[in-house]
Amino acid sequence: MDVLLLQCFLHALKSKVKKSELPLLTSTFLRIHMFSCWLRSFRVPVGADLEPSVTDGGEAESPYCPPEITTLYSVSARTEPLFLDANKRKGAVLQPSEVRNIITEYVKKNELVDVNNKNYVTINPTLCDCLLEKSEFQEVDSLKWDDLFSRTLGRMQECYQLVFPGHTPVVKKGHIEQIDISVASRGSNKKVTLIKNLEVYGLDPAVVATALQHRVQASTLLQPLPGSKDKVSVQIQGNQIHQAGNLLLGSHLKIITSTAYNNASSLSKPVISFPDHYKIPRKYIQGLEKANKGGKKK
Questions:
Q1: Among residues 159, 187, 203, which one ends one of the domains?
Q2: What residue stretches are annotated with the SUI1 domain (predicted)?
Q3: What is the pLDDT of residue 76?
Q4: Structural domain tally of the chain?
Q5: Are residues 190 and 280 in the same domain?
Q6: CB neighbour list of residue 8: distance below 8 Å, 6 or more residues apart
Q7: Cys-Cys crosslink for 273: which of 27, 50, 56, 58, Cβ 3.0 to 4.6 Å?
Q8: What phi and psi, each to the nearest 5 degrees, are found at residue 129?
Q9: Rounded to whole angstroms, how far apart are CA atoms 178 and 24?
Q10: What backbone torsions phi and psi does residue 173 show, to the nearest 5 degrees?
């Protein structure tokens, strides 16, 4: 493996990097130039039974699994008074169900349920300041429960939690970025497909690019995203939205090394099987509607 690593390093340095790109971050060199050389040194034996890879210690490596994504809400400065009784300060991150329970307890504790109609909650000064617009101060004196909950969530900071199997949960502010698939024109009306934000879902753009290259037999390119230090886009020749969508939706990625087939005399190099599908939920992918009918290339 050390010899392979050295070969990939020298090949990338000699044939991939342009003088105009120097100086170059090592992380960028590895991701964009060197890793693609490493992938091209792998091959899949004809008729191989694709099973998860086996390490030197004899344990099977886990296949790629998409992260579990959960929408969360952070207590904002405006809504903080509603959460003080629950000891939740500004910045506390909560599940939607936790928000609902805390607000319900607040309403009950302050006896704000409308005595004439329990579907409504009476607005007190705190709820007024936290949830109502200025134009509503003199007009709204009660809200339905659902409206109360939706307004509370709307005044909070939306977050999301990513949980990858075997890793500590990661919480980030804002909306999660969707994987973006689009088609652009290059040169004399030639079309290319661009795929962005793969890193958000734990996907390596170099692996995805190589998998697509093998699927459609078209050239691919990795390009740094403007304004981003650690993200790249995958560019592949032609309108490949249909194929990219099929790759991102469905079953697991399987990776194999030669240790899994140490009795096969036909193997002289490590082996990688490219993914059939990554099983990313459709709602986290945008641009699929732009695919050619029948998946044909233009």
A1: 159
A2: 179-252
A3: 96
A4: 3
A5: yes
A6: 34, 35, 37, 38, 41
A7: 50
A8: -70, -35
A9: 28
A10: -80, 155
